[in-house]
Amino acid sequence: MRVINRGHIKSGNKQDVYKKHSSFKIFFVFVLIIGVGAGISYFYISNNDKKAVKESPSIVAVEQPELIAEDKELKPFKIFNGDEFKQLYLSVAYPNTQQIQKPISITGNDEADARIRKLAEERGYKQTSIPQGAIVKIDEPRLENDNLLQPLSSVGWQKLKDAAKTDNIPIAIISAYRSPEWQRDLFLSRLLVNGITPAQIAAGIQDKAINGALSSAAVPGYSRHHTGYTIDLWCEDGSSAFLNSVCFEWIKKDNYLKAKESGWVPSYPEGADEQGPEPEPWEYVWVGTDYLK
Fold this sequence. Notes:
Layout: H1 11-55, H2 59-74, H3 82-91, E1 97-99, H4 110-123, E2 129-131, E3 136-137, E4 148-149, H5 151-166, E5 171-175, H6 180-191, H7 198-202, H8 207-214, E6 230-235, H9 246-261, E7 264-268, E8 280-286
Antiparallel strand pairs: 1-2, 3-4, 5-6, 6-8, 7-8
Helix pairs in contact: 4-8, 6-8
């Protein structure tokens, strides 16, 4: 058997082996450096990402409250439909008023009066209240004996009038507080215009005429004007009806926003069932802004 001594190995072969070993070591160190560098980078980036996420709230957490706050600033009032406006009026406790206790005479005929009240209540009219203490004069040029409002609604009217003036809207009041006696004269002027008598009313043969009058006027004791918190508006723009005026367009916009900013809501709005008269776009009742926000 031939024995190969170390001396028999050529120097060139030995250098080749060393070169192979050295190359492997260099490659290993290079891979190790890259690996360590990548790990450090990942750790640094990952930690910074986590820190950024922790320090920067999500879009929902940051932007949504800002949008809600902005929306509340632009639209601070509730949106109501017709029935909700109606229920709002009925639920408000009006300061300085007392409920009417005794039915107020209409025609002087008890049977006729009872029939008129029955038909009125079937339409949705409800007995209302009257001032308990003094109310204030508002000095409106179109008014006479009804030139009065409750102190709170007087302030509300001034705010509404100032807002209209700022927007160049020629709004005016044509009716404010009405006593039961005033309302009786108004109602009878519409009911008895065609020669209808209390006896005919009591006999039940003039119900159509009664409902015709009730479509545009309340019977005494059932008018919201009795409270001192209700007004009828007019527009000085030459329109033949408030419904077709720039004033109505202005006050109705954005669910009656201009009215609500001064504490007013439509008294007999569209979309409300059994509210008494037909919708009256000119009549507004003061409830204050607290109920509206």
